[in-house]
Write a structure and sequence with these properties.
The strands form two sheets. Strands 2, 4, 5, 7, 8 and 10 form a six-stranded antiparallel beta sheet that branches. Strands 3-1-11-6-9 form a five-stranded antiparallel beta sheet, with no helix packed on it. It is built from seven helices and eleven strands. α1 packs across α7 and α3 crosses α5. By secondary structure, the protein is α+β, with helices and mostly antiparallel strands. β4 and β5 form a beta hairpin. The protein has two domains: about 140 residues, no CATH class; about 130 residues, Sandwich (Jelly Rolls). The relative contact order is 0.15. The chain is rod-shaped.
Length: about 290
């Protein structure tokens, strides 16, 4: 999950919101409502707040400053909703301006200054609305993600064991079975002697033990590999562990398996006709989507 910036400016806040909402969030719908309430209340209060200068402008602003009548306005300007400026609206409700116009005649230059002020105030109010919207999105997103309601999707995994030993002949890749389940949150999946990597692929590992069988000598070699069932070939293993000395020991294997691939675990023994192998485990973790 993205971390909020420590001292964010406008662009940091916007980028944080974009990064956060571009990632999946599996929170229930009511969590969105609960985390939105504080941010919405703060935004509402800011939009309702006003200064006495806004009230004074609304009260003393001359009438009829607009150069374009409503009939001449474009269709888009008439359709765009406008947020009310509370201070300006309160000032217009005070009849000071109308009474003042009975005694004072505004000159052309003064009216031009009022028009400039109108344009400046419109830009500043638009900037205020944009600032409120950015802060609302940032505060809501921060509450949603910092509160721990959004977590990365849980990746599937499994772990199975084999208890006891069985015979393994020499110089043969023997498919191992793991029938005792520790846990499984599929995908990936495992069914006794083979597994499937699932839609995102997985990283799998396996380990098995080998020991001398009664009536036979000590095995001199033992290794484990994870095989692609369809291809019949082992996956690359960057860090295998094999039997280091003749006798009892263990071996392990790890592999990165492509999506939707069936795989199994196979063991190889050499040095004697038969040995016992088992007492191991197979496990896998799904790759992130």
């Amino acid at each position: 999950m993205p971390n909020p910036p420590l001292d964010p400016d406008y662009f940091d806040k916007v980028n944080y919101v974009i990064d956060s909402w571009s990632q999946p969030c599996n929170a229930p719908w009511y969590i969105y409502i609960q985390t939105m309430k504080p941010a919405a209340l703060e935004a509402f209060i800011v939009l309702l707040s006003f200064g006495w200068a806004d009230v004074a402008r609304g009260a003393f602003r001359p009438k009829g400053l607009s150069r374009r009548s409503s009939k001449r306005r474009g269709k888009w300007s008439r359709r765009i909703p406008k947020l009310p400026e509370i201070g300006n609206a309160l000032g217009k409700a005070i009849p000071i301006g109308e009474q003042l116009e009975d005694f004072v005649k505004w000159g052309c230059g003064t009216r031009t200054m009022w028009r400039v002020d109108n344009a400046v105030q419109a830009v500043m109010y638009g900037w205020l609305v944009a600032d409120v919207a950015i802060n609302f999105a940032y505060n809501w997103t921060s509450a949603l993600y910092e509160g721990g309601f959004c977590r990365p999707p849980v990746l599937g995994s499994f772990s199975y064991r084999v208890i006891g030993y069985s015979a393994i002949p020499d110089n043969v890749w023997k498919v191992a079975g793991f029938g005792t389940e520790d846990y499984e949150d599929s995908p990936p999946t495992w069914l006794f002697n083979s597994g499937n990597s699932g839609p995102t692929g997985c990283t799998a590992g396996a380990a098995l033990s080998v020991k001398q069988r009664i009536g036979f000598g000590k095995p001199t070699g033992f290794k484990v590999k994870i095989f692609d069932v369809a291809a019949g070939t082992p996956f690359d293993d960057d860090d295998p562990c094999e039997l280091e000395a003749p006798g009892d020991g263990s071996a392990c294997a790890f592999a990165s398996i492509p999506p939707n691939t069936q795989f199994d675990v196979r063991a190889w023994m050499e040095g004697v006709s038969f040995a016992d192998y088992g007492a191991g485990a197979v496990f896998a973790n799904a790759n992130p989507p």
